[in-house]
Each structure stands twice: as C-alpha cells, then as structure tokens.
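The records we work with from here on pair a chain with its fold. Taken together, the tokens spell out the fold as the letters spell out the chain. The record below shows the convention in full.
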Amino acid sequence: MTLHTETLRIRTGAEERVHDLTADCARFLAAHAADRDGLLNLFVPHATAGLAILETGAGSDDDLLDILRTLLPPTRPYHHRHGTPGHGRDHVLPALIPPHATLPVTAGHLALGTWQSVCLVDTNVDNAERQVRLSFLG
C-alpha cells in the first residue's frame, strides 16, 4: 500500500458556487493510482466550504445552492458576524455539507455512479481561492 497526496488550488470567485472536481480527481488518479484499487480521500481545509457528490449540469448544482439559501438564509442574524452580511451561514455550511469525502477507486478510476460528480461547495464570497487535498491510498 502506498499513499499519494496532492493539493489543488481552486478559484471559486466572488459568487456562491458548486465547482466540479471530478476531472481533477481523474487526473490525480491517472498519475498515482495506475490500475490499482483503493480509496480517494478529499479534504477541504476551510471552515466555510464542503464537498458533495451530486449530478451537475442538469440544475442540481443550482438547486443545492437554492436549498442552502433556504436552510441557511443570509439575512438571518447569525452570532458569527464578521465578513460580508450573512457570512455566519458560511461557517454553518460544513455541518450540512462536510469538508471531507472518501470514495472507492477501482482499477485506477473513481467508482462513481453514472450521474455522480465530486463537487466543492463554496458559499463564502469573502474567500475566492480554496484548497482541496486529494489523497490516494491503495
């Protein structure tokens, strides 16, 4: 068994965003997993972002952001109040969208379902650049 780790730098910009990481994961596995089975672990070392497995491109990513605005309305008076208005909600996000995911790898490829993608979820408009740590164990 070997462990390989790499850190991605993702520019999410100044708007709430669901950023698809699936191609980045595939590139990482092509370089480090060869034809091996194992686990891909992803971790976002930020207090205001998370990782989700969902379909993208058909509206589900926008639906997720809409649901998060309903569950965590930016206008609610949060106790955590620094940053732009509503920033307190960004610090609650990782309790609902965790900052980690562990996924199966089979023969060097992510074992995702047909419509599943690995996504970074970032509602924090105060931080335009994120890191995602990828680790393959196999």
Observations:
- The CA atoms of residues 49 and 122 lie 5 Å apart.
